[in-house]
Write a structure and sequence with these properties.
Elements: E1 8-12, H1 22-30, E2 34-40, H2 49-68, E3 74-77, H3 80-91, E4 95-99, H4 104-119, E5 123-127, H5 149-158, H6 208-220, H7 226-229, H8 242-246, H9 252-258, H10 268-290, H11 312-320, H12 326-338, H13 343-356, H14 361-371, H15 377-388, H16 403-410, H17 415-420, H18 440-445, H19 461-478
Parallel strand pairs: 1-2, 1-4, 2-3, 4-5
The structure holds flavin-adenine dinucleotide (FAD).
Length: 479
Amino acid sequence: MPIKSSPVIVWFRKDLRLSDNLALLAAVEHGGPVIPLYIREKASGPLGGAQQWWLHHSLVSLIAALEKTGSRLVLASGDAEKTLRHLISETGADAVFWNRRYEPAGMATDKVLKQKLRDDGLTVRSFSGHLLHEPSRVQTKSGGPYRVYTPFWRALEGGEEPHAPADAPKSLKAPPTWPKSEKFDDWNLLPGKPDWARDFSDIWTPGETGAREKLADFVDGALGGYEEDRDFPAKDATSLLAPHLALGEISPAAVWHATKGLSRHIASNDISRFRKELVWREFCYHLLFHFPELDEKNWNDDFDAFGWRDDEKSFDAWTRGMTGYPIVDAGMRQLWQHGTMHNRVRMIVASFLIKHLLIDWRKGEKWFRDTLVDADPASNAANWQWVAGSGADASPFFRIFNPILQGEKFDAYGDYVRRFVPELEKLDRKFIHKPFEAPEEVLRKAGIELGETYPRPIVDHAKARERALAAYAAVKNHT
Ligand SMILES: Cc1cc2nc3c(=O)[nH]c(=O)nc-3n(C[C@H](O)[C@H](O)[C@H](O)COP(=O)(O)OP(=O)(O)OC[C@H]3O[C@@H](n4cnc5c(N)ncnc54)[C@H](O)[C@@H]3O)c2cc1C
């Protein structure tokens, strides 16, 4: 085979890793110098604030990892096509490789670009890596997309194994001269003042190494017992891999394979339960792939006539964790403090916004998109629609979580609430999820003055439930 001398551009997107990066490996095999590129694209929409914090640290980590291989990361901002064309003419690259992405705007850009660059005689190749399987290849027996999770899971569980993850290349051939790059420090991805992300690094280490460590810790620790403990927010019982997966610092295939061959030490139901969650992520992408308007339109259009309320004051109380329902407030404050929220509590706060406050799920989805470090176009939209009852295979609308009972069931000692709502720290366990029912004397002893140190409930649960059911009945009668 002739030795190639023209460079190949590897366009990094949501695959900020060197291992199991099939586009990068193919570039090495291509033979010429490799030019890693990251574009801050405007067209595919800016990341939310919390995820920009993550992106900053993730890029720092990627730049360092590339330097160890003798390479660099070229940085550019703006339109992808213009940037690529400019870089191609500057470097004489004859090929562009990337790993596929599945959010609608990104897919549209890639499709057009692939064709245009190929028409110009370049080699353009795309690879899989963000998902376990290509959504277009997972189909029901009748050839359509899955709309229900359980058969989707069965198809994946019994189907082809995800590819075995590939190692990172040890070295990357550099071009004779490096093309111009923007300065990373000029990107200013970190928050200014106030620095609302100051506590994020208590629990997060963005980047490929951090992702691998999180996975190893989880497999050695919380994976055993995952099925039973995963629903209890005070326990550190889940993997915390979501933000690493969201920006592709680790591939889902690597996570899947890390849970293989463990059955001698770990119960098979724990492993299977964890894999089922990974497959929920996959299912959400499957839905987004087949229904690109997932974050904008109700999957079930019966909900188009739903009577959402416009209530900025309540929305604001919800975002600040000041609703007067401790489990809701703890979740919303965990989101401020760490850019994440336990899955059980995400369901509770989402249900509260949608059903107790009758605020459109799309407002909640946007808030999460801006505040979650793991904000993901598929998982976020699909889960909000799941809670709203408007989604595919969704929880029925009439199943309305009672925030007091949910708290008492999943945070029985109130440890989670005490951690994130410190003004309730001294409150007796009996009232920790319903301070508004505590006698004056109990509140006084705990140093709480309702309406002053902690809010009274912004809605009454029983009345809000009735109101939600009436709003739902109106939609049902209308259709
Ligand atoms: C209203 C709402 C919004 C959500 N928004 C997002 C989001 O923007 N990004 C996101 O990654 N997850 C989202 N989730 C799903 C879930 O809450 C998080 O994936 C999970 O809490 C992440 O924690 P973990 O990594 O410790 O999960 P683990 O319990 O360790 O699960 C392992 C992996 O499985 C996947 N997963 C787990 N649960 C789900 C689920 N319900 N749906 C899809 N994938 C899942 C994630 O990739 C996760 O990292 C949302 C859930 C709700 C109810």
